[in-house]
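=== RUN LOG ===
request id: a7f3
mode: sequence -> structure
chains: 1
length: 156
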Amino acid sequence: MIITGIEVIRGNPEVAPITNNPGFLVEVAPPGKLEVTYGQTLRITTSFDYRGPAQTATLYGAIGNRGFFGFGEILANQASIEVPESPADFTPCVASVDVPITSEISPGTDYDLYVKIKEYPEAGLPEVDDVIDIVGVAPEFELVEYIIYPQAYLWE
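=== RESULT ===
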């Protein structure tokens, strides 16, 4: 399984090739990073070869930071994918998962991403490091309405 592309699907769609990771072809904005901001959605596209019965699987994508003790997920999402029946030969499949950019992630540079098929860990866990920059100011909670209910008080 390899990651074949990432793109912003809400906001400013930017797509251009990068090849700084051997074995992966990732499409991001030049010079090799994709800038996203809050409210946008990042689509991670992956391709893999499948052989077996037709079934539904779960594609899982995450944005975070690679550390010494593994990948620290900050934002993640999953999507159901249908894989076709292919009893004899491997069939190429392409699938995508959309990860919304929310205030759970701080503005910063050099975020990493990875994808996996939850039911098939042996398919691999392709990862791309330092490919996402989060720009802008994180939205803050805003109190829209303040109501005091008289029945909430005890009157003597």
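=== NOTES ===
Confidence is low (pLDDT under 50) at residues 11-27.
The first strand starts at residue 2 and ends at 8.
=== END ===
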